[in-house]
Amino acid sequence: MGRRWRLSVRSTSTVVAVLVVSGALTVGSLGLLHLLRDSLRGSAEDAARLQAAGLADLVQRGVVTSPLPAPRGDGVAQLVSPAGAVLASSAPGPQRPVVGLRPAAGRSQVVEVRSIPVDDETPLREPHDDDRFPYTVVAIGVGGPARGSTILVAVSLEAAESSTGTVGAALAAGLPVLVLLVGATVWWLTGRSLRPVEAIRAQVADISAGDLHLRVPEPASSDEIARLARTMNGMLDRLERAAERQRQFVADASHELRSPVATARTLLEVGLASPNVDWPTTAADVLAETGRMERIVDDLLLLARADEGTLRIGERTVDLDEVVLEEARRLRARGRVAVDTRLVSVGRVVGDESQLGRVVRNLAENAERHAAAGVGFELVTDDGVVRLAVTDDGPGVPPEHRQAVFERFARLDEGRARQGGGAGLGLAIVRELVTAHGGSVTVADANGRGARFEVVLPTAEGP
Prior knowledge:
Blueprint: H1 9-60, E1 76-80, E2 86-89, E3 108-113, E4 135-141, E5 150-156, H2 158-206, H3 224-273, H4 279-308, E6 316-319, H5 320-334, E7 338-344, E8 348-351, H6 353-370, E9 374-382, E10 385-392, H7 426-436, E11 440-445, E12 451-458
Parallel strand pairs: 7-9
Antiparallel strand pairs: 1-2, 1-5, 3-4, 4-5, 6-8, 9-10, 10-12, 11-12
Helix pairs in contact: 1-2, 3-4, 4-7, 5-6, 6-7
């Protein structure tokens, strides 16, 4: 199925802005014209009412001038008798009433007509329902001595209609220009705003696995695009560090596995080249190297599961004190160092017993490897957590290396000797397993000499 064609962000923004502005201006212009037309027509009606009321007052007082004052513009004023005869009119004015309205005394009526008669031959146009009328006529009934008479004042609406038409024409001519100006402005502003995004996109397109040191340009601002650039550079930093760790991990794993493989191969080659080889001894040595490889592979698989988030943790209650004491008995049996368990008390946690046993064993073997004469175990339950500490009286861990010792294949220089032991994965596994159990592990000095590794886990009873 082909890709759906879509407008670019710049085009979409421009089209939407043009449509919204066009709609808003059109509605606003129509509303303005409607209000302007109603206002001008209302002003003409008010003027006609005012003059008609004045004339009616004069007639009631018996003061009638002839001709009557004419309304402004093209308008007519009339005094009509009860019989329909024009008694007085503005000059020049028709001799027939402009409309046939006859309101009662003191009442008024308003009507709009298309035209008014200008002489006796012009027929009278009756009011009708047309939406455009050039005249508005106000009729007021007269009381007093002239009771029954009517004052008619007709005012032309041509000025109102003409003004409305002029404004409408100006709006019709100006709106397209304004809409085009808005569209051009939005197009330019959007293009300018998206220019850093395009620069970021182009830079990201050039970044490959071998170019993770490259970074996208960061605009000198604090807007969303600048934050996007900083976020992407932060992501590239993390990717670069992850790739570097992966390369180092592969290199270290290859180095660690190559050593037992080379040792086993050498033993076999020497055995094959020597006619008097002690094959049981050679087989035992090869088996030991194979076991070492197996342990490294198991450790790597565990760390891989931790990276993938597939490391499964049991939910059984574990007596951690029993696990610690069992490991202490194992160390005593080897007889290399003195083991102190006097500070071990009851501690119960929830988790996987075999994995927690691996945590204790790795810490114990690390302490034994670096101890001068003794290893100590401490276990105490305090304030909703179980604290496990494994100490030794060795050279300790310098403060600047106390985070690095938990990295994979990380070993201090003095620990890299073959007699020093492991592959540098033990403490990394401790951190992963403790973290998976909801705890933490740290390293500090042990009473001024040696190292103290402390594991904090939530208790089985909860806080």
